[in-house]
Fold:
Amino acid sequence: MSKNKKFLLQGLLFCVLFVLTFFPIQEVFARKSLEKPWDMTNKISGFYNEPEDEFAVMYFGSSHAYASFSPLEIWSETGVKSYVFATQMQPMWASVTYLKEALKTQSPELVILECNMLAEDTEYMEDSTNSSFMDDIPLSLDKIQLAQVSAAEGERFPLVLNFVKYHSRWPSLTQEDFTFRRRQAIDPYKGFVLLPPKQGGDPIDRFDLSGDIGVQPLTDKNTQYLREFIELCAENDIELWLVKAPCNLEPENQAKMNAVAQIAAEYGLPFDNFNGEDDYTAIGITARENFFDQRHMDIVGSTRFSEYFAQLMVERYPDLTRDAEDSAWQDAYTAYLADVEEAIANPVEGTTTQAAEDQT
Structure:
């Protein structure tokens, strides 16, 4: 064997051994969110273990998506299967990547984009937020490209290979770090976060949105990636519905949602903002009684919203594929109802209106 061939063979062997050892070690050290209700590692990793072409509908966005849309409740109402592929404060550029990830295994007929994060003005999210949407998706060219737009130069590499960031976790490693397997992860709630009712605490604020609030333009970056998300759906013949879930919206964010409405109209897309007084009445929720914190509904509020949304969805999109007889979904729904009953029977003590994102 020539020296060149021997050198290449040794190099190839080194690369194989590096991959076989480095990536399992990285998995051990990586931060994992496994404790309910914030078990986002199960929810994101679990999506990749779902059957191909399982979901007729998919939801994207921030915590306002995963605390509002209950796929099991919506399936019970309509027979339509769905998944919430959302993360804490998921920025618009991450939602584009998450849609690309979803399309690798799913062929949704309808995509719901929860538009909360379009009101944000920051160029880059904080490091903890970046980790929340980067850590649990597999390594791919799409992930590398997402890192490029998610952090300033010099701060991107740890978003792709997080061993650089987490290698010092070894003193705090637990048994779960060694036994957890992403290929076995599953989320029975299909991405939904079940927030219990809150008892006591500060009152929830409700803002007057009835006046002429006007329009406040989105940032250039948010506009760019919103348009990319819209065009990606169009390229794949997917219906797209833009939504602002109930969140006791502030007037300044209402002005941003008015800008979203203008872009939606430009593309001939529906945009529904469920934060008006009439919306709360129709859904059957109040700020004081049905919110876990200032901006996220509890399980009673999200159940009522999911039921309301489900009926509106099938009226607007009557041809969505339905599978109301799936025994696995029925079993999951039965177990889910027991969890809902337990949550309602055991409200949590609340002393503040701390945002749900801050507790993950």
